[in-house]
Amino acid sequence: MLRPLVLKVHFYAQGGGAIGHLDYMGNPSKEELVRAGEHGDPRDDAAVHAAYMAGRPGSTGYIGPDPGRLPDPQAIAAELREHQGPVWRAFVSVTETDARAMGGALLDRPAWEDAARVILPPMAEKLGIPQDRLRWVAAMHRKDGHPHIHLLVWEHPPQRQRGKWRQDEIRDIKRMWVSSLYRPERERLAREKSAARDVLVRDGRSEVAAGVRVARGRGLDGIPPRLSTSQAEELGRKLDDLRALMPSDGRVALKFMPPEAKDQARQIADWLTNRVPEYRALVDRYAAIAVEMAGYYSDDPTAHQKAADNAVADLRDRLSQSVLQGAARLDRAGRRDEVVQVALAAIRGQGDVSDDLAGRIHQEVRRIAGMKGDARKEAAGVLARELLADPHLRPDVDRFLAAHPAKVRDIEEQRLVATVAKSIEHAADYVSFRESTSAQQAAVAMFTGLFRTVREEELKAERLAAEEEIARVKRRQIQHGMDR
């Protein structure tokens, strides 16, 4: 784990005895400068620090805004002697061990020089200094144990008179330096963090889908990634309880849910995480990465714990959103099943529909039984739409559609029509079977249907097995990447 980046900031008040200390600019020792800059010595001025930056042992010379032109120390000193506003002195440092761990680039000048030119403009903006008034000079020191950079920043002509930086300014500026100097490690950890999050959310969605299937009484199509059948059944019951707490319409998003629904969704997410050891490991690793990244800024255990808590809460809420979506699907599926059950009853002559429609359904099913191909499908679709528009059934259809976002309601209605139309075709198949002219025709019809059903189940099993193998390979790849 890398040590926190060090950022120290002081400022020189406007004026000061720079002219009287020009001789001191030549080759001051570090100890003299520290006493002068941090203990109120009257020799404290920006010109002294400018000379120290470039003159002390280990310095790589001045760095300025223009990569094609070296700063002129004499011109800088002259400008600072006349400067009437604050001059900020900053010190940015990493440990030598961390510099080597990140590839060694920070042991030499170019990486610091590039970072300074990238960071100084937005850093100045954070301080309220426009780009056309920004002045700065820097020097990188190859100090054993902690390579670092010294900065002098001022505004010409000066407008800002407040020298001391606020805590939020220091925090934001430190983030800029961390983002630049610790980039290799940050990018590596960010990739690992994203992988852990994506696996948890993706597999969590699969678990929720299994719970929805069980709650609908349809059993498990294939094996869910992690949960046992009994756990999937328990999840299904929890989702069923959650849907009773959710609004009947509106956007399905955690932030829009009433408090009791939020709490229930989060409890289900925690339950799911704690039931599966692999999920618990992903959450723990996600929190550990957050702590490691927080360590770039501070050694404070309280800050580290806050980072871990925020990371866990972030994952929980992402998983809670999947839980809410599952409960919403369960609700929509329940409303859809109600519509389909009424429609099926009507097709069988048992539904509460008008006598005229019941008679028409009976006649049309018999007519469709004698049709084939596209004509048969089209006739079944027409009858399905007529049935769903019946006053006895339409309120249930509208409630089902209202549970979906407006942009997909047309699609869902088309799917509902297709489901009812398929049921009408099955009814027509039954009529054909009953009216077959011979036992041989009946047997052929029955075995053809049986063969089609068996083949469909085989194809479904093959597809589920292939999907499970793909998911297993992806999990191994992700785990291999995390172990590295």
Tally of separate domains: 3
Beta-strand content bin: 5-15%
How widely separated are the two ends? 15 Å
- Stretches where pLDDT is under 50 for at least 5 consecutive residues are 15-44, 54-58
CATH class of the largest domain: Alpha Beta
- Number of helices, where a helix is a run of at least 4 consecutive DSSP H or I residues: 16
| CATH third-tier fold name of the largest domain | BirA Bifunctional Protein, domain 2
Main pleated sheet: 5 strands, antiparallel
Task: Give me the Rg, rounded.
Answer: 36 Å
Integer average pLDDT: 80
Helix/strand structural class: alpha+beta
Q: Which sequence of SSEs, written as H and E, runs from N to C?
A: EHHEHEHHEEHHHHHHHHHHH
* CATH architecture label of the largest domain: 2-Layer Sandwich
Helix content: 55-70%
- Strand order, sheet with most strands: 1-3-5-4-2
Shape: elongated
The number of strands is: 5
